[in-house]
């Protein structure tokens, strides 16, 4: 619009004054108070009907005798900038909603170990409001011990500049171990700041389940002893270690005598109880480092690491003379003394695998049975 079309016209010609509130308020103030106003105005342009945002500076014009005679103003159209700012605000709001509702601990840390960001879940775990964490050193927020523990994995991310996944452990307030699966990635926040962004999820329940499955896979359900699978896996490793370092190793094979008769006479559940009690008794005769397993129905085996034949013989005899007397029939007060046949061997230089050792132990057990049972046969 040419200047001459503007001069002499009032605001109502250009702006929709009914809805341009701030413009009216500002102008009123300037004309009444001899002042300067610097503010944002949202004005409706009459010709286009558009809402336009201005950054406006307005000042009263005063005559020599102090009367306000008008006003002078400079307005800059900041509509686009304002729209962009609003867009960024909206996006930040959305990002906040996502980061604070996702079931993960999310945090950002710089190379100097300051927290640059934490989501609500992380702040809650640290027991502090977000604003008391951001900008603070990790040790000041979570204590030196825990901070140093986490820093070990954080450091790897900064050193390799690559995304990494860690299994991390921390203690909760009650001292219980919590397991976390943490993905940590490097991120260039700005020209001067290299940070890491971490996402950690609490996998304690999953970890416990995994451990329980592992235990079940290695354990005999009836007696709670190691099962055959675990026994042979462990034995092979123990054998390799013994061979490598020239160490002794004993193996004891145990079988209950005439166990079939117990089942036949008193029933399977009574037989089960006998198996459980005998397992407990054998455990009492061996050392902490010996491995006892139920390798068959009524067969047990023991690995005795770093034991000479003499030492293993003492253990086998201890197992053999243990009183395994059980009440089989409560009504008739019938007790039965269960006996064991035992085969004992120790590792020889020429043994190439644990299987060779175990076959010899089984043969020794067979000899013990053959010679009348209830004895230890040493091969
Ligand atoms: N109660 C019970 N019995 C079992 C279990 N596993 C195997 N048995 C029994 O153990 C018995 C083993 O019998 P045999 O192999 O003939 O051996 P035995 O009667 O002990 O005779 P010898 O070994 O020659 O002295 C069988 O009756 C099986 O049913 C179990 O988990 N529970």
TrEMBL record:
Location of the PAS domain = 91-136
Among SUPFAM superfamilies, the record links this protein to:
Nucleotide cyclase, PYP-like sensor domain (PAS domain)
The reaction(s) this protein catalyses: 2 GTP = 3',3'-c-di-GMP + 2 diphosphate
Q: Name the InterPro entries on file.
A: Diguanylate_Cyclase (IPR050469), GGDEF_dom (IPR000160), Nucleotide_cyclase (IPR029787), PAS (IPR000014), PAS-assoc_C (IPR000700), PAS-like_dom_sf (IPR035965), PAS_4 (IPR013656), Rev_trsase/Diguanyl_cyclase (IPR043128)
> Domain named PAC: which ranges?
38-90
This entry's Enzyme Commission designation comes to: 2.7.7.65
Q: Which Pfam families match?
A: GGDEF (PF00990), PAS_4 (PF08448), PAS_9 (PF13426)
Q: What class of enzyme is it?
A: transferase
The protein's superkingdom reads Bacteria
The GGDEF domain sits at 247-379
Gene3D superfamilies xrefs:
3.30.70.270, PAS domain
* Database matches in NCBIfam families: GGDEF (TIGR00254), sensory_box (TIGR00229)
- Protein name (database record): diguanylate cyclase
Q: What is the lineage of its organism?
A: Bacteria, Pseudomonadati, Pseudomonadota, Gammaproteobacteria, Alteromonadales
């Amino acid at each position: 619009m040419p200047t001459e079309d503007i001069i002499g016209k009032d605001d109502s010609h250009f702006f929709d004054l009914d809805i341009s509130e701030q413009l009216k308020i500002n102008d009123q103030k300037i004309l009444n108070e001899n002042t300067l106003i610097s503010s944002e105005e949202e004005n409706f342009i009459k010709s286009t009907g558009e809402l336009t945002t201005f950054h406006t500076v307005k000042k009263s014009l005063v005559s020599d005798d102090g009367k306000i005679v008008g006003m002078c103003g400079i307005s800059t159209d900041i509509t686009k900038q304002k729209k962009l700012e609003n867009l960024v605000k909206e996006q930040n709001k959305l990002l906040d909603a996502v980061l604070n509702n996702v079931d993960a601990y999310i945090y950002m840390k710089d190379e100097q170990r300051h927290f640059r960001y934490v989501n609500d879940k992380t702040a809650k775990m640290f027991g502090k409001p977000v604003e008391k964490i951001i900008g603070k050193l990790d040790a000041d927020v979570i204590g030196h011990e825990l901070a140093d523990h986490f820093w070990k994995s954080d450091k790897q991310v900064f050193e390799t500049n690559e995304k990494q996944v860690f299994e991390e452990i921390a203690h909760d307030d009650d001292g219980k171990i919590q397991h976390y699966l943490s993905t940590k990635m490097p991120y260039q926040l700005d020209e001067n700041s290299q940070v890491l962004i971490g996402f950690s999820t609490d996998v304690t329940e999953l970890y416990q389940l995994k451990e329980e499955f592992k235990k079940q896979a290695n354990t005999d359900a009836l007696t709670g002893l190691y099962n055959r699978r675990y026994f042979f896996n462990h034995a092979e490793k123990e054998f390799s270690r013994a061979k490598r370092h020239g160490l002794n190793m004993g193996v004891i094979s145990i079988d209950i005598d005439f166990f079939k008769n117990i089942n036949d006479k008193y029933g399977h559940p009574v037989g089960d109880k006998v198996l459980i009690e005998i397992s407990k008794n054998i455990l009492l005769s061996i050392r902490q480092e010996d491995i006892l397993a139920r390798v068959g129905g009524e067969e047990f085996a023991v690995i005795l690491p770093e034991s000479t034949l003499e030492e293993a013989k003492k253990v086998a005899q201890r197992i053999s003379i243990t009183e395994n007397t059980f009440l089989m029939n409560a009504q008739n007060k019938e007790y039965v003394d269960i006996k064991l046949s035992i085969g004992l061997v120790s590792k020889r230089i020429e043994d190439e695998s644990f299987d060779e050792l175990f076959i010899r132990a089984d043969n020794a057990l067979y000899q013990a049975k053959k010679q009348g049972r209830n004895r230890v046969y040493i091969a």
